[in-house]
Amino acid sequence: xxxxxxxxxxxxxxxxxxxxxxxxxxxxxxxxxxxxxxxxxxxxxxxxxxxxxxxxxxxxxxxxxxxxxxxxxxxxxxxxxxxxxxxxxxxxxxxxxxxxxxxxxxxxxxxxxxxxxxxxxxxxxxxxxxxxxxxxxxxxxxxxxxxxxxxxxxxxxxxxxxxxxxxxxxxxxxxxxxxxxxxxxxxxxxxxxxxxxxxxxxxxxxxxxxxxxxxxxxxxx
Amino acid sequence: xxxxxxxxxxxxxxxxxxxxxxxxxxxxxxxxxxxxxxxxxxxxxxxxxxxxxxxxxxxxxxxxxxxxxxxxxxxxxxxxxxxxxxxxxxxxxxxxxxxxxxxxxxxxxxxxxxxxxxxxxxxxxxxxxxxxxxxxxxxxxxxxxxxxxxxxxxxxxxxxxxxxxxxxxxxxxxxxxxxxxxxxxxxxxxxxxxxxxxxxxxxxxxxxxxxxxxxxxxxxxxxxx
Lengths: 221, 225
Hints:
Strand content of chain B: 5-15%
Strand order of the largest sheet of chain A: 2-1-3-4
Helix content of chain B: 40-55%
Strand order of the largest sheet of chain B: 2-1-3-4
Pfam families (chain A): GST_C_3 (PF14497), GST_N (PF02798)
Largest interface: A-B, 28 and 29 residues
Helix content of chain A: 40-55%
Oligomer: heterodimer
Order of helices and strands of chain A: EHEHEEHHHHHHH
Largest sheet of chain A: 4 strands, mixed
Radius of gyration of chain A: 18 Å
Number of strands of chain B: 4
Keywords (chain A): Transferase
Protein name (chain A): glutathione transferase
Shape of chain B: globular
Number of helices of chain A: 9
Order of helices and strands of chain B: EHEHEEHHHHHHH
Family (chain A): Belongs to the GST superfamily. Alpha family.
Enzyme class (chain A): transferase
């Protein structure tokens, strides 16, 4: 046992990508096991590895952790990316919940029937509900990071969300100069820069094969 | 201003109910301001009260907090209902995230089109009895303690009780195969702060009256959510 966290998920972004981002930002090396068949998934369940029969699963510090937010909170706290006191933590939580809501729209997108997909709504939410908040927060305090003048989980997740929306609409930051500077600045943090390079464990956007694999693995007999 | 927390929501359970439960369990008195019309919600937005233009919003300790989980985390941390260390916290988080997943399914039930309702209800009951309740039954049985985590009352116990009760509203005998959870339910219901919350006249909200659903949806413009 190497001692590195081990991530079990499909070979794609989904709900595990935020975990990959956070571990990478914290400079924590991790291993991955990819679910490719229904048999693998059923075996995990039968072996009692999945508390609620679901992935993401992250084996870390002797625990088999499930539930994305539980995993992210644990990693953030352990790696000092969760603020220095309850109030900073409260702001970080508000900010990451906002970006999680936005990214949640994009994560479910490929699994939504084509006629129900609403890309315009995603872009509208990004540009009218979410990005203005972060633009304003950064502009008002003028600091490099969202909370407490210190790099935190909130910065990592905001960068992840920005890049994800830009993949759908490259000009989405055109009215957000402070976020443009934020994006450049956070992307240049060494651990993040490394994660953004080819060959890292960052996953590409979902394609048809990814969607098909997920459906196949999770299918009920 | 130290004051009581003030909750801004509509006069019903929705996403605020878990917050009401946690404050009540912690013995914290709170005030409520209800959005009864679209205009009420619009005014809150225009006054800049809602960080992401959404409720729940809770004014607490000088903050206007939004995002249900952020609010719950803050309250739990403040009132020592979040375990004694990171690992207990991790376990509590896993347990409460699952109860919130089940709550979410139940919350969406009234929004199902009539033809899908029976199937959705069956799915709720199946998830409750095969995915979620067996985990808590086993956890309590394995350690034999009164509370889910760390031999101490925590938000996990509060949220599990809340979920059990709303699941029972879907199917009254849903705990029939879970004797340990039945005992848990009785025991946690008897904790003085919880007992008080379960009595008539408390701020616990009733299930949504189906006749009021269109009005609630119009306040939140739910078809666009």
